[in-house]
Design goal:
alpha+beta, 4-stranded antiparallel β-sheet, two-stranded parallel ribbon, 13 helices, 6 strands, elongated, disordered N terminus
Length: 444
Amino acid sequence: MKANREVFHPRKTRNVLIACVVFACSALVNPVFAQSAKGPVRITLDEAIQMALQHNHNMIAARTAIDQSLAMEVTANLRPNPSIFSDWEYLPLGSPAKQNPGLYTGVSNADYLKNNTEGDIGLSYLIERGKKRQARYQAAKDITAQTRSLVADNERGLSYQVATLFTNVQLAESTIDLAQQDLKSFQQTVDISDYQFKAGGISEDNYLKIELQLLQFEADLESAQLAREQGLSDLRQQLGYESVSADYDVVDAFNYLPVKANLEELQMQALQNRPDLLAAKQGVTAANSGYVLAKADGKQDVTVTGNYSHVNGINAATFYASIPLPIFNRNQGEIARTSSVITQMKELQSFTNGQVVTDVKDAYDGLKSNDRMVMMYMDKYREVAKKDRDIADYAYHRGGLALLDFLDAERSYRAEELGYRQTLASYLLALEQLREAVGVRNLP
């Protein structure tokens, strides 16, 4: 028998190499694809915020307002189009000689059209007075600047939403870790109690109480897992649903982050950085531009016309100029309205200025309150609860403590640890609220 030998053709080898190159390029170009080859995507808070700013559909839709405003700038800066007109009058319906042989005998159609008809062609143009075009363009530019600030304020709000959802997922995952540790630890107690019950060391009532306590740990774990799944789903919607895979996860330190800046420094920083306050200031500028435009629109425009005529064999030129008489309409209503808008925008700016200062103070006070609560847990109560639980566990398994006292110590420890994690999450959320109030993410 002849052994079968596989023959490698150059074409097949080349196809394999091309496939490998395409696969490698796809992994380099698409980070999500490359990450999926290694495992689920894990993103930090900063990465989540940047991803949301780039892929959130509401944010992308909001940014189109800038493009629309830029297009309105183009429209506002356009000059009026000139108008062209023409006519040819007294054209005969048939041969002139046949219609009136006594008058046009021997006259050709060409001679008649040249000497007995009238033709006109002209050009007219509207001359805008009062620098209307410049005023329109400036008003459109000021609106664009305000639109940019409003979009930046939307980005500020989106960053806060993402950070809030991110922190909620961190809290859920930290609660899962706590519930798993508690469940594992208490499961040992259940196993020991089962052995003691079968050996006659404890009553059935005490054994059932211990088993019922296990249910609480299992319920804590189930609730935390549900909160994590829902939190990741809500966060994915803000990131841009298609931008991450379904099995993504968050990865960042769920730790205490002290803030050293004082209230006055943060308020001054907010007055310089808050995009909504900048938009309010730009609203005043845009209102002033609208007032200037309204006054310019009150100036009457001039229409000039040049006309060439050919009448009865004679060539002639005619020039016209016309302007409306500003007897009744001088744009008084629009001038008055835009003047009132200036006052409105100034009042809104003053309100926003106060709102910024108030937001920072409220966020700062909330952060300091949560800071004190976190420090209480970290400096004292977590250690006290753990120590009390360890002593109760040691005493109970050696017959020196009643079952109810042991279970009460377990509940207190679980409540303190869960309370610490919830307080830490509240502190981190208060920190995000302060970042939103100041308008920057980098705080001293």
